[in-house]
Design brief:
heterodimer, A: mainly beta, four-stranded antiparallel beta sheet, globular, B: mainly beta
Chain lengths: ~110, ~110
């Protein structure tokens, strides 16, 4: 079945460091891929998405590229800030349905 | 902006109680979802609904039921709460594509 695997956390970085959170997926066909972010005490918010191969989603300095050849959608940011401290979830949705499949989440802490 | 609201942010109940978690969305979305979120397990789908009075089981429906009498409201029901249902419960709604989440309800069952 469809599934998403993302890197184990927690991740701790210093401010202005480079961030990569790995995400790979297993799915038939051509799913849409998403990154959601959950700030402390809140629900999930959409961070970015990509709907087809080679698409790049971007928002708030974060980027992820849909790589079908490696079934990956890694999240990157060139310079993290303390305010980026949150839990990040990778997810996929098949275009023929409405069900989402989420990864287990990666906790990021950015220290000044 | 899409708004998804949940009836309580924090809830404490006793074992055996019947518990209702309410979710309301204001964007006329057809699809609504209930998840539970536990450390190390991520989000797990309990139930979803793609129309009024329609429901589908997710990955972990045991011990839960749902009700969708109106398009904007999707209720999660714990018929007899147990301690292993202590968790964060997240509601989401979706037209097609992106899901929009509520703030979550942290339920503690004593």
């Amino acid at each position: 079945g469809d599934s998403v695997t993302q890197m184990e956390g927690p991740v701790t970085l210093s401010e202005e460091a480079f961030l990569t959170i790995n995400c790979t997926y297993t799915a038939t066909g051509y799913p849409s891929l998403f990154w959601y972010v959950q700030y402390p005490g809140e629900g999930l918010q959409l961070l970015l998405k990509a709907t087809k191969a080679d698409d790049k989603g971007s928002n708030k300095g974060f980027e992820a590229t849909y790589r079908k050849e490696t079934t990956s959608f890694h999240l990157e940011k060139g310079s993290v800030q303390v305010s980026d401290s949150a839990v990040y979830f990778c997810a996929l949705r098949q275009n023929t349905g409405n069900q989402f499949y989420f990864g287990t989440g990666t906790s990021l802490t950015v220290i000044p | 902006d899409v708004k998804v609201t949940q009836s309580s942010r924090y809830l404490v109940k006793r074992t055996g109680e019947k518990v209702f978690l309410e979710c309301v969305q204001d964007m006329d979305h057809e699809n609504m979802f209930w998840y539970r979120q536990d450390p190390g397990l991520g989000l797990r789908l309990i139930y979803f609904s793609y129309d009024v009075k329609m429901k589908e089981k997710g990955d972990i429906p045991e011990g839960y039921s749902v009700s969708r009498e109106k398009k904007e409201r999707f209720s999660l029901i714990l018929e007899s709460a147990s301690t292993n249902q202590t968790s964060m419960y997240l509601c989401a709604s979706s037209p097609t594509g992106t899901q929009f989440f509520g703030p979550g309800t942290r339920l503690t069952v004593l």
